[in-house]
Amino acid sequence: MSTTYTPASHKPKKLLTGFISVRAPELKHIWASLQGTTSASEVASKFSRPSGSGLKTNHVEDSLRFLNAVDLVESPTGDVLDTVERINDRHFDGLPFEPRLLYHCNQQGSRQSHFADIHRALLSEGSRTVEAGRDNIRTILKRETDYDFSWTDEKIDMWVTLTEQLGLITETEDGLVLSPCRALMYDALALAPTTSTEDPDYDDLTVDDGEAQQMLNWINDNLFTIYEARTGTPKIHPAIADVLRNMAEDGVVDLSAPGDSQNEVKLPPENLNDDSRGNRQDVTYVSVHSKPNETAYQYPLDQLLTH
């Protein structure tokens, strides 16, 4: 595994959420198909869509530009629509595409940090779900972020569609459910460093008594938002707590806090009407066991392939 993260060259300046035609299945298949340096025309021939006027390649070109913008590919000639090759593929070797893409989106700076900030802004509401109307989401984003562009419906739709396909959220008739799928949470815990002296590593998926605050801090800063409040003793967001509780009930993770432990995090109760300091569970250590071969522990894209 390489611990070096390399920013791509000649990255497009277009906002990540401005790639409105980009979808996770195509990103995943295109990225996986690249073996060494490949001509963009070869990629287009594999993934273009037929139409009455010939093959449509716009979505392939946008996918390549997006992968370039998040440091997953670059071009030896400086133009990913000419030649393209994967970069950073040995960084977190073996990590599934879904958390890998979220990680890369979270490494982007300047205005491109808006992609990760959407999730942080939505969780700032403190609720497991938020009303999915784009006007409501836009109101939250205007209040919680400060970017010099408009949060159009198209940008919001792009983020919702892509992150739902990656397993970060779910859009239902009742709103956006902010709980990540168990597969994503599992891989996040398996990847996160378990002590302050370790680097993130996906070589060994099981974890014995990892330091909860260290692991969850890293996930919060590099993959997706974990906390409702981080000052003092960090408090896990209810949407995240639900997933951890479900995984604990499945026997996939153990959440523990010896009586003399320090540096704990707080897990709110399932019934948020009872969410007071005395009713929150202390968590100091997290152990991660083998992932069960069950649908609940598959990513949405894998579920589509197997059902």
Description of the structure:
Helix 1 (24-33) crosses helix 3 (58-69). The chain has two domains: 16-91; 93-307, no CATH class. The chain has helices at residues 24-33, 40-47, 58-69, 97-106, 114-123, 134-144, 153-166, 182-191, 212-222, 238-249, 300-306, and strands at residues 38-39, 49-51, 54-56, 73-74, 83-86, 129-130, 170-172, 175-177, 207-211, 227-229, 235-236, 253-256, 265-267, 281-283, 285-288. It is 37% helix and 15% strand. A hairpin with an 8-residue loop joins strand 4 (73-74) and strand 5 (83-86). The chain starts with 23 loop residues before the first helix and ends with a helix. The protein is an alpha+beta fold and 307 residues long.
